Amino acid sequence: MEKIEVKEAKGKLGILVVGVGGAVATTMITGTLAARKGLAKPIGSISQLATMRLENGEEKAIKDIVPLTDLNDIVFGGWDIFPDNAYEAAMYAEVLKEKDLNGVKDELEAIKPMPAAFDHNWAKRLNGTHIKQAATRWDMVEQLRQDIREFKAANNCERIAVLWAASTEIYIPLSDEHMSLASLEKAMKDNNTEAVSPSMCYAYAAIAEGAPFIMGAPNLCVDTPAMWEFSKKMNVPISGKDFKSGQTLMKTVLAPMFKTRMLGVSGWFSTNILGNRDGEVLDDPANFKTKEVSKLSVIDNIFEPEKFPDLYGDVYHKVRINYYPPRKDNKEAWDNIDIFGWMGYPMEIKVNFLCRDSILAAPIALDLVLFSDLALRAGMCGIQTWLSFFCKSPMHDFEHQPVHDLFQQWRMVKQTLREMIGEKAPNYLD
What we know:
Blueprint: E1 12-18, H1 23-36, H2 46-49, E2 51-53, E3 59-61, H3 62-65, E4 74-80, H4 86-93, H5 98-102, H6 105-109, E5 114-115, H7 137-154, E6 157-164, H8 181-189, H9 198-208, E7 213-215, H10 225-233, E8 237-240, H11 247-260, E9 264-274, H12 277-282, H13 285-303, H14 309-312, E10 316-323, E11 330-340, E12 346-356, H15 357-377, E13 382-383, H16 406-420
Parallel strand pairs: 1-4, 1-6, 4-5, 6-7, 7-8, 8-13, 9-10
Antiparallel strand pairs: 2-3, 9-11, 11-12
Helix pairs in contact: 1-15, 7-9, 8-10, 11-13
């Protein structure tokens, strides 16, 4: 197999986070800074800890196989609707203990957000004051592009990656404005605020500046023909959507197990409680709709009811998210799964997952950035389907179906990395 020429990770990588003061962002940044100082291990990070078997049977760490950016070469920045620096924001989020934050306090305090591109109509539960004033969506894009250029120059960065770790926007369907790059640009210049979301402005600005864009929420954003076209035109990778951190991660493990054993499923009820800012935003039905669509798509895709109607042709799937402030970032997820086996006899499985939302999401966010930067240096552009492993609702074009099975997704990651180094898969189960 021919080896792909991957450029070395020379110089600094600037990671610009939308929602840099949020729980996920500050947890990711703190953990990365702590790992660099030897104060913590990057647990949960595929890029830092996972291994992969090579064609000759040798097993090596992924970061020793492909040229990933070293954690010491990362510079963090970003935008937020609140002016707090990263230390103040992390204290407010109450995900991490003060003693852990204090280990990198100086570095966190130095990360001050740029004013955010924000439209209250897209997240009505948020009332930030640290926002840009823009006459049109196009003007909003131009301001963001200038921010990227100035950050890159000020921090002597060779490359930039832009990560959305902000709140879920209201649900909008795909419309004519999203079908081509020309129509999207016209909508931006015409200030069509109903079709063009703030996240689309960030994505456009990133791609225009040659920076990979990663969508960590279920927003429509880059999952449109217009953005696919633009990313290919600019030779920039895009990925998303929605960090696969908690309950959906469990579904992408359990559902393949049922299917592999040919066990039937009659119902799957999922509910969550969480009390962070994400939970507050999702308390609005218009924003929850976006998340619901993302979470509901998993089961049907894995089960293939059209192929196995007797087993999965009539699955009742319900998802609920409830805002409960006392829990803050400590989410609790319940799944009640009604299954049936031999001769149709019913059984039940109950899962109670007491998870820490941002603790699970932080390494995913880091990995998506590092692998997207790797893809850029490998000359890859457009939708990065091999990064579906990290996403609840993997992006895909109209000609393909997404892969949701976690183990199939993991094989896709390894196969892509093998192709980069000109390796074939081992001739046994990997």
